[in-house]
Amino acid sequence: MKLSYQIDMSPESEWLVVSAEPENKEHLPYVQELGDFNARERYFTTREGLPSYLIKYTLAGEGRLLYEGRDEYLPPGYFYWIDCQNHQHYNTSARTRQWRVLWVHFYGGESDYLYRKFLAANGNNIGRLPANSTVVSNLYALLDLYRGAPASGADVRAAALLVQIMAECIYSAECKQDDLQSRYVRQVQDYIGAHYRERITLDVLANEVSLNKFYLQKLFLQRVGQSPGEFLTGVRVNHAKELLRMTKMPVSAIAFETGIENTSYFIKVFKSRESVTPAGFRRIWRTGSAAK
Fold first, then answer.
1. 168 lies in the same domain as 137
2. How many Å apart are CA 93 and CA 278, to the nearest integer?
3. Does one domain contain both 184 and 171?
4. Does some domain include residue 14?
5. How does the average pLDDT of the chain come out, rounded?
6. How far is CA 92 from CA 54, 83, 140, 231, in A?
7. Which of these, 129, 132, 69, 121, lies nearest to 102 by C-alpha position?
8. Is residue 263 very low, low, confident or very high in pLDDT (cuts 50, 70, 90)?
């Protein structure tokens, strides 16, 4: 490992070094070091070759990160998540000359997978947390856990907190993707929810959002995990289930009400989704017994 640094921190700063149990390191994400730094203007670290991930969150002031060819500033509310095997340099911003940060070095378990998932969602190593994020409270909980002599089971509790922290970082990245493409998809879903009784084709949906129908099909599949047609079928079946439970309407009328005029086809579609016929579904909810 290559390392150079200057520790320039105010006296109230905390820095804890943790030794997880060997058997826990084999199976769980585990804490290596963590802290609450009030770094002053000369604080910096330059490093590479360390088997560790680092999440650092700015509480106040501003930091600067040089990593993977990017030169970024981190004001309050921003964090970075980096792989410390790669060359990195971070320091207190000259613009503020103070950087208050919560941070944790960790490794093991599903850290590799979750890090890759974060990068895929975020596009780079810098993120911003929403106001309701639990990352800060969970970082403080980790500090509380390892102050003094750790209690029995501390590594397992720490692993749970680390997974929550990583998941929140990924969630913040996914929220950032609430872009024009996502709005197109929501618009199609809303249209289907309002017009499921009508005849809806891919051409109708594409015209509604002014997109090429083949592009819409691909986009919807990527964002929702199913095609617009499959989503429409799901909406129709869900409404049919409500009518079967709450009304005495005949199956043929329910089929028509949900936009499927052919009763035999409706029964086939319903059974493929629910593994029971519409009549059988109604019998289950009326009597509480399995349909024959």
1. yes
2. 65
3. no
4. yes
5. 92
6. 16, 20, 21, 50
7. 129
8. very high
> Residues 31, 146: contact at Cβ < 8 Å?
yes
pLDDT at 85 over 50: yes
Which segment of 106-120, 167-181, 268-282 scores lowest on mean pLDDT? Answer: 167-181
DSSP 8-state assignment for residue 9: B
Q: Which of 49, 204, 186, 29 is nearest to 105 (CA)?
A: 29
Structure confidence at residue 114 (pLDDT):
97
Q: Which helix (H) or strand (E) holds 151?
A: none
Assign 179 a pLDDT band (cuts: 50, 70, 90): low
CATH assignment of the domain containing 254: 1.10.10.60
Partner residues linked to 90 by β-bridges: 45, 65
CA dihedral of 78, 62, 158, 167, whole degrees rounded to 10: 10
Residue 292 lies in a domain: no
Q: What is the pLDDT of residues 52-63, one digit of tens each?
A: 999 999 999 999
